[in-house]
Each structure stands twice: as C-alpha cells, then as structure tokens.
Write a structure and sequence with these properties.
It contains 16 helices and 12 strands. By secondary structure, the chain is α+β, with helices and mostly antiparallel strands. The chain has 4 domains: 48 residues, no CATH class; 105 residues, no CATH class; 87 residues, Gyrase A, domain 2 (2-Layer Sandwich); 47 residues, Orthogonal Bundle (DNA polymerase, domain 1), CATH 1.10.150.390. Strand 10 and strand 11 form a beta hairpin.
C-alpha cells in the first residue's frame, strides 16, 4: 500500500526526492497515514521552492554570486615548502571559472590511489615519482659546449637515473623524439654527445640554443605535472600535483580514476565529457565559496553551470562566449563592442523581438518579466460592444 502511494507521486515529485522519502519511510517503518502526511508536506515544500513564472532568475543569480564576491580575498594559497604548488582562490579563481579560461593560472589535481597503495607511504612516493614530469636537466650534472668538436656534451647523474628506474636508452630516445635533426651518441663514461645531423647550424649560437633546449627535454613522468606532494587525508594518502594531466594519471593502474579530480574544467570536458565538466564547475564554485566562509544557493550554482555547458561545449560569460550568442542584437551591443554588433546586424537585416531585459530597458518600455509579463485580454462581443 505504501509503495502504491509513493508511485502515485511519481508525476508530482522528482525521482531523487521520492527515492529519499522511500528510504526514510522504509527505515522508520511508518504507517500509510504517516507516509501520506510526509508526502503532502514534501510536495508543499517542493512547490514553494519552484521559480514563479516571470521570475527574473538571471538577475537574482547574478546578485547571488556578486554580493558574496565583494567579500572575497584576492590571494593565492601556497603549500608550505613547495613554491610551485599553489592554488588560486577567491575572486581570481571565480573570474577564471566564469570566463571559462582555457589556460588557468594554477592547474592542480588530487590523485586518489587504489588500496593497498593508498596506505603505504613508500608506495605513494614511488607513484608520485612516476607521475612527476622529469626533464633532462634534473638527471644531469653538467652541460658543456665542446667548441673543438662542435658538439654539446651532457653528463648524466647515474645514481639518480637508477633511483627513478629510467634507462639511458629511453633518455636518448626522448631526446631524438623531442629534437629533430639532432644526432645523439653515448660515450662510455655516461656522457651523451649531441650534434646537428647536417653541417649547417654548427656555429656557436646554434650550439648554445641546442644546449638550452636539451635541458627542457622531458625524459620521464607525465607531461604537464611539474610538482607532486603526497599528503595524508583522513586514513589514506593522496597525491596533490602542480599541473594537470587527467588522461595520463587515470591510465595508471594504481590510481583510483573514480575519485581523481582536476581543477581544469576544459580538461575534464576533453577526457570525461560535458556532463562531467558541468559537475566540475559546480564543485569548483561551491568549494571556492565554502573556503571563504560564504554561502550561495546551490540552485544558482547549477544554473551558472548549465549556462556555461548547455551547448555541449564550455563557453564563458564573455563577449565571445555566452553573451556573444544572445539572440537580441541590442543585448549583445549593450555588453561590449556595440558598433560591431549593430553594423553586422544591419548588413544581414537581423530583427530584434525584444523578449529579454536589457533591450527593453534601452528602449524605455516595460520588461517582459514579473508584473510586466502578463497582458490584459478583453473578450469583445460581435457588435463591438464590451461584454
């Protein structure tokens, strides 16, 4: 009987709310009468939470974000002892998110590990070393330009190479792959000899450029991960990274891909899809406001996330993103570069139906929202007389 009662509310309440009610009443073993009272109250609360027709929800959402943002700090949080591992917080990070910037200031990941690796500090350090991108400069003790032979000589640090489980053959392959037209040869004493394959470009300047370029050749780890920091969170170890490479990290068998996150929403979109990117926007925005001790209605966060991702691509609230795609010519012109929008609209004979807020404000007429939404309709008799 209780199940039939719950099923009767399927058209009236969202599945998630019904699921929570079902779980609660099953746990408490309530009578049909009590369940009915609960459902009536839940339905009442759900209806009162709905947006009314004509509600200016865009303006309310903007205020919901804007007011607490005035109280935000403008700083970057640094992890102790690791200068490179910083996280943008506060207003700079909110602007970064809402503008949907492709290159963010402080890309960062939280890498969770599978059991039993997440309990063993040594295993965590080993995995962290595997994740961090290693450049040739870190595995070498000396870079010398040999003018008599017109070559660059790199002295490798054999102890460090052994500790990181990297072979000298893989280092040579990485150099050949990164630097085209460069011949690499290994001498017996662990020195790599690099020279231009052709005769041209063997002057001092090109050798100096080669010496500087070879220092930055990646020879191990994952591209883009500049720093790693194993930390204990609760009863397990996780790895915080400076830089982001979600696809590469998730491919490691020791990593728990279901919990690993990055703060780069464009990378989430590329690797996991647009729904995951939407959730990443929600998570990042909520985290920023919570860290500042501020509160914001989650429905407003959902709305902003939907606006940014509803086209299937991530588009920021900028003149080239969401604002540039508005239907109204006057709305687009009111944001930035008005002349461009008006001239382009004139050239193609574009029409403006004046359905939104800003275009009606510009023309000094009622906005079709709130009390400006309904019109009074009078039904006339056949003879033209009022009924």
């Amino acid at each position: 009987m209780v199940e039939a009662l719950l099923d009767s509310y399927k058209p009236k309440l969202p599945p998630k709310i019904l699921q929570d009610v079902r779980k609660f009443v099953t746990k408490k073993d309530l009578s049909k009468k009590d369940v009915e009272r609960i459902l009536v109250e839940v339905k009442k609360e759900y209806d009162s939470a709905k947006i009314h027709s004509g509600e200016a929800i865009g303006v309310i959402t903007a205020e919901s974000f804007g007011e607490p943002s005035t109280q935000m700090i403008l700083n970057v949080f640094h992890f102790a002892g690791v200068a490179e591992l910083a996280v943008s917080t506060g207003l700079p990070r909110i602007i970064e998110l809402l503008d949907a910037r492709k290159t963010i200031k402080t890309p960062r990941m939280e890498v969770y590990l599978q059991a039993p690796h997440n309990k063993d500090p040594k295993a965590v350090k080993r995995i962290a070393a595997k994740i961090k991108q290693i450049k040739l400069e870190e595995l070498s003790t000396n870079f010398v330009i040999n003018l008599s032979k017109l070559q660059v000589e790199v002295t490798l640090n054999k102890a460090k190479i052994k500790d990181l489980h990297i072979s000298e053959e893989s280092i040579i392959d990485a150099i050949k792959k990164s630097l085209k037209g460069i011949a690499v040869k290994e001498k017996e004493d662990g020195v790599l000899v690099l020279r231009h394959a052709g005769e041209e470009g063997n002057e001092l300047l090109s050798l100096y450029k080669l010496k500087e370029k070879v220092k930055d050749v990646p020879v191990g780890g994952l591209k883009g991960i500049s720093q790693v920091l194993p930390v204990k969170e609760g009863n397990e170890y996780i790895i915080l990274t400076g830089g982001s490479n979600l696809k590469g990290v998730m491919a490691l068998e020791e990593v728990d891909a279901s919990r690993t996150t990055t703060n780069d929403i464009h990378e989430v979109r590329k690797v996991l899809g647009i729904e995951a990117a939407r959730q990443a926007v929600v998570r990042e925005v909520v985290k920023i406001y919570e860290d500042q001790g501020l509160d914001i209605d989650i429905r407003h966060v959902f709305m902003i996330a939907d606006i940014i991702t509803h086209t299937g691509e991530i588009k920021g609230i900028t003149r080239s993103g969401i604002t540039g795609e508005k239907v109204s010519v006057l709305a687009r012109a009111s944001f930035e570069t008005p002349l461009k929008h008006i001239v382009n609209a004139s050239l193609i004979g574009e029409e403006d139906t004046l359905n939104s807020v800003i275009e009606n404000v510009l023309l000094n007429q009622p906005v079709p929202l709130g009390t400006g939404l309904p019109d009074l309709i009078t039904k006339m008799a056949k003879g033209g007389e009022e009924q």
